[in-house]
Specification:
- With 137 residues, the chain is of the alpha+beta class.
- 47% of the residues lie in helices and 21% in strands.
- It has 2 helices and 4 strands, in the order H-E-E-E-E-H.
- The strands form 2 sheets. The protein has a two-stranded antiparallel ribbon. Strands 3-4 form a two-stranded antiparallel sheet.
- Helix 1 runs antiparallel to helix 2.
Amino acid sequence: MDSDLMKAMQISASGLKAQSTRMRVIAENLANAGSEASTPGEDPYRRKMVTFSNVLDRDLGVDTVRVKKVGFDLSDFGTRFDPGHPGADQDGYVKTTNVASMIEAMDMGQAQRTYQANINTIEAIKSMSMRTLEILR
């Protein structure tokens, strides 16, 4: 396989790996979207976010994408008035997660589109390589 095609495939493969991590984190956020404190003063599930970085692959001589870190969204928790809840504070409010399902759904859609674009690139490279081999026979 041509070295440029191989480089393109490696770049796309790094994109697949990064986006699959992003989708896993989004799935975790969505699974915990209904989280709330179970005792007064306790924090509910805190939304996680994925940060990417460009990393030079020295062997290939190209920039690839990597997950830099999976960190926490430090935005405020929500609150819900429910004085009978075991997690309610002295004013009757329960802390709720800072996960917004609509934002997670939009992020998942973007991650899916990016993942699919990388798959399409790999399939195009594979097809081009196969055609090249057929011509060389």
